[in-house]
Structure formats: C-alpha cells, structure tokens
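Dear support,

I submitted the protein below through the web form. The confirmation email said the job was done, but the results page showed an empty box. After a refresh the structure appeared. I'm attaching both so you can tell me whether what I see now is the final result or a partial one.
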Amino acid sequence: MDNRMISKRPRPHLHRTANLPRHWVVLPRPVTRAALRQPLLRGLCPTHVGYFPGARDHQVERAQGTLQTIFQYCAEGRGYAEVGGQRFAVEAGDLLVLPPNVAHAYGADALEPWSVFWFHAQGEQLEHLQHELGVSLAEPVAHVGKDPGLVALFEELSRVLEDDYSPPRLLYASRLLGHLLGLLVERRRENAPSSARSAEWRVRATLEYLKANLAQAPRVASLAAMAELSPSQYAALFKRLTGASAKDYSTRLRLHRAAQLLCKTELSVERIATLLGYADPLYFSRAFRRVNGACPSDYRKRERERMPSPSDVD
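What the results page shows now:
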C-alpha cells in the first residue's frame, strides 16, 4: 500500500453524479438519536450502509466532516482519501476509516474506479475499535485483504436495515456490525506486512504459543525474547492486551482446557493435572476451584448432569 502526498483536490460535491449507483440506506436522524439513548445500542449503532460497484466519478468532499465515523472497504479497483492535509492511496483490500467532525475528501480512481462497501456508525465503542484497527488521522487506511466473508457481512447489514429499523432490528444490526468490525480487526492483523508487524502483533503471536504449550509454565524472559522485547516491555504490553499477567493468562488457559477434559473425557483428575503441567494434583484442584467454584470431580459431575442424554437429542 503506497500512501503518498498529492496536491490535486477532488471536485466539491456529495454523491451527485448521475451515473453513481445509489445502493444505500440512511436511518432517519430521530431514529438514530433514539437508538443512541438505548443501553444496548449506545456502544455501536450503524446509521448508513451502502455499496457502490464500479463507482466511476465517485467524488466526495466534506469541509466539516460528518457526525459519524465512516468505514469504506475497497473490494475492487482503487481510489484515494484526503485528510489532515495529506492524500492517501486506497487499493483493493484496503479499509478507509474517517473519524467524525474532521474535514475530508475521497473518491474513485479515474482509470480503475473502486467498488466500495461502506457504513457510517456512531457509538461509544468506535474510538477503541479504531485503535484495534490501527487507524488514525495520520494513517486512515488499513490493509485487511480481499475476503468474501467481509462482503457477506456488509451485504447482510444492508439487507437488515433495508427491511426495517425498529428497535429489535437495530439491535440485530448493531450486533452484526460488531461481528463485521471484529472480522476487520482480525483480517487487519493477519494481513500486516512482516516489515510493519508491530510489537503488539509479536506479543499476540506469543499468545498462540501459550495456547499450543499448555503444559509448560510460562517464562516471561523467554516469551519476551520471542517478541523481541525486554521483559518489562513485554509484561506491560501483555497486560494491556489481555488484562492479565502472562502467568495468570496461562493459568486461565490451562484451567479452561481442564474443564473441557473433565466434561469430554474419562481421564482422571490426576492425569488431567499432569497433562496440563501441574505436578501436584492438590494444587491443581485448589486452582481449579478458585476459578470454577467447584473442585474438579464435583465440576465433572455437575456439568455432566446438565448435558442432554442421547434420547433428548433425538
């Protein structure tokens, strides 16, 4: 992705091109205001959603920005965005994010016009989601790759709001949008070029190592070396990403796995403790009880009593 400063300005108009496909839905402002007062919607609420295929002549300029955060996923072709005095290239597989109340402009490339799926949203979660996407005013474009799953979620969101915007429908749209944004975050991490993989990305890679090596007690020094960080830097970033220390996070993973083994296998408590790296079964039992509210044998009995019998399933 080549982000370049270019001096050319777009033509100042908003979606007025006669041949621009008009596949979009906009919620009435009173509906949006009412939705943002609802506890389950104030965190994340879609307000506009649309799709412009092969949008030749698509040019937008907003001197005052918008009230919403704008997300545009370029599925094909290319375009540009201008924000903060810089012009950024937007290629196929890129996500453009523009925060509210910020002057901006964007549009399709003249030779290879983009096809864009887009939505506007409001809510308390958006600032945090932008952080997870790694976008900002200085870097509003993130590469998330081409993914049919993303397209399917954009299309579903459009169908939902096109049908109805009653409170139950808006709640579904909000949860669907959360799923879409979660997938965008995941694809952003997967598609980060190796040269740009951040310390955060490297720490997240060590989380996968911990999941694959549950029987090994975590050593912060070793994990930090994997992430190419000092132990103190690693510990601080690990805590910020997971809300726990490496030791506590590993314990959480091991005990979660223990609960699965108790429910799904006939392995003894002692054997499960050994498989998960606990040399002392009593210590394992105490740790398990603190997290799950019951000792391993009682937990197994309780959970199996809750499971449906084969006749229930049939």
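Response: this is the final, complete result; the empty box was a page-load delay. The longest helix spans residues 167-190.
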